[in-house]
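Structure record:
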Amino acid sequence: MLSLDALTTWETAKSMLGFADDQQSAVEFLINAVSATANRISSRRLKARDYDLRLNGTGRDIIVLPEYPIIALSKVYIDGNREFPPESEIDPDMISIDADGGIVRLTNMNFPVGIGNIRIIAKLGYDPVPQDLELAVLEAISYNRRRLESGTTGMRQVSMDGTVTSQYELGLPLSIREVFEGYRSIL
């Protein structure tokens, strides 16, 4: 079963990588593992989901959300008591967003300094998953599949001057890691 963090689908992996139906469970495990790795390397949760955030007020007119892009901003509340009754909701006309940067800006007021005094309800993350990211996930699935099936997990063969030696594998191929790092949180 795929997790909420899955950055591709069983159907896409099956189609692109030629998996058989009886491999679905193993492939879904790889999808979840690779997606978790992408999230860890990027320091983000990349797949879109609904959030109900409690954030600290900054004393500035902006607040940077921990996840982005902003797909939909439903509500913004400010309440020093952290109870967030309906009257603490900010008028949507007083809010602007930088969707790609995950920034919420207030017009003619600041987010008061405080701990957990800001509540934001929003859908954040990628939907759909960017093609370069999904391709890197598929490449990592294929890479891990080959390593597991060959029985050389953690090893790689290196050829020099006609001789072949085994070395320990140090991690994901650089091309995959670079894509994941390209989505790294700026915070």
In short: The mean pLDDT is 92. The longest strand covers residues 114-124.
